[in-house]
Fold each of these.
Amino acid sequence: MKKIIQYNLNYFISILLLIFTSCKTETEINTNVTSKQLPNNKLLEVLKTEKTATQRGIFTHSDYGSTYSFKYQFTINKNEVIWKDKGSVIPKTILFCNDTPYIKYAQKKSIAYQQFPNDTIVKYKDTIVEKYDEFIDNRYFFKWFGDVSWQTISKEDYNAKKESCNEYTIPNDEDFKHIKNQKKGYINYEVLKDSIIYHYVFYNGINLYRGESHSFKIKEVDPKTFKELSKNYGKDSLHIFYKGHKLKKRDVNSFRVLSNSITTDKYGVYFDNKIMRESHGPSFKFIGYNYGTDKNQMYYLGLNFYNILKSVDTKTAKILDCKTCSNRYVADKKQVYHEGKLIKAADVETFEVLSYDYSKDDKHIFYGDEIIKDADYNSFHILKPSKKIDNLTFNAADKNNEYGLSNHNLELIIQKK
């Protein structure tokens, strides 16, 4: 009976989760027409359509991300020449030879590359390729019947026509400008005339993702006052943005980006955009790589966690300088800390780091902030090189045991010899 009740309860919870995580797609479409008068009474009209699709929770109304795409089409003298249905490409120039139009347009292409010689993970980077088309008009009888098409030609053919024909630029928003700018470093925020597009993470010019689905138009942003602060952060005159999304309750004037995870403003210090209690933003500064301090307290700042050193004497605290410490340890005149946690039994005067997370004083051997109770003090030593068995790595030993870690977690493993 209990099993049946538990099964029904689990089923009911699953249904509730399914309901409350269900999404609907909200689609926003914007169009813009730009006209340009060409010689010989030719009127060029360019239509750009932008589409933003947002996944929003049906019950929670939470924003689960947006996708952005665009497409161009143009006509000359209304329907005399029509260019469309090319997807997210950008028309660049058009030339006329004996009234036959030829077009050059830009297209984004993702190509596979190998970052390292033995790299087994397929990565992609974006590049821009130029393509060329010739207009083929097979209409007849006042152009009421027949059809039109665009035929691909080579760059050489286009350039040959260009030598004796007139070429004109086609109005566009330079939508691939962010790809050209990737060589400069992190370029995630693309500022257009009246909007800003956020493109997911770029690293030294290499797009770690693929496809238009990883770009979207930012909402409630002023392009005229917008400034990119880092690969993730940007601001306009009123708001702070993280990965294209507006952050709540941030002071624009005092906001600082100090690292990938640390930002500050007049309200406090933020770790991964969550304010750390009792922090003071204006006075915060880094000490070394993993520690920071403000007028109120000291912090250990890990990769995906932080600790506040509650009882540290900030006036005498210093990071222990050793080759294998990796900024893990801090000591003041009375106490020692490992990654911001107090090593309660440690004696400051005799404390010594052995290697990374292993340390000792005159009485104990420590792993992290805990005493290794099974360790033999006199024979304990660091293994050089470390010993690997399956998914375990043993990097210390004494006369009785070997000490190490698994590849899956950082809990100390003790194995009898």
Amino acid sequence: MPLTPAEVWRAIQQQRTGQGGRRLDTGTRVECQWCRSQNAPDARSCFTCGAPLDIRNLVSDSGWREAPRLRDMTEIHFGRSTCQVEGEIVPVAEIALGAGDWVYFEHHVMLWKDESAAMSVMPLSGGMKRAFAGMPFIITIAQGPGRIAFSRDATGELVVLPLHPGVELDVREHAFLLASHSVGYSYVRIKGLKNILFGGQGMFMDRFVAGSEQGLLILHGYGNVFERMLQPGESILLEPGAFLYKDASVTMQVETQRLTSGLFGGSGMNLARMTGPGRIGIQSMYVHHHTED
């Protein structure tokens, strides 16, 4: 009897952790091009990130690949829980939390919840520094069992990023929608980074670290989202408002491009130099948050 997508996913996780279970042949699996997770051969979307499995990666000549366009009502699985992505213009992430599972988020992105979903606050250090940096200083926790839904108050895409054990990801402020309980949360200061990088408070970024088990991170990108892999020593210059996320291995520095001719003579353009190795993600709408927001 063929395995269901859920059974394939559980069998793969058991093999990865050495817990035995039903052995899967390599030919039984379909690898997701976005997150590299393994799936049942008849699956239409990735069990782990929701990316369509019947659509090839769309990559530009310069190496940027589009974040996958999730089909409406796509289901994503983590732990004992599922996430269903609903809508397209202002997408919603609806989470069915299993018993013992929990997610955390900025409190203002919650759309609705079941009464049974318990709420609490995650203790954070450096609250004053976070507040002055324009980052959230209150992170809310929702614990299962129960359903809860999230959305950003803006058009764009939801970017689903399964984080494999040991992965560290840096994310711009006000971009993360939610993360699962197995993902550690902190913030990082980029030394020497000018405040101008992110419109007044760009010296800090959210940092997410996957522990011993795979976790789930969902971001909101304004406009469309694109990702590129930088090789060791390879650099690219970004308009600061376009930056969305990067691997912790990617370094970031401010670089001023002098404009000395014509109408803009004597002025400068501040750009973010990103240097590999690692992946970087950008959004096609330039967003600069202001401190008073």
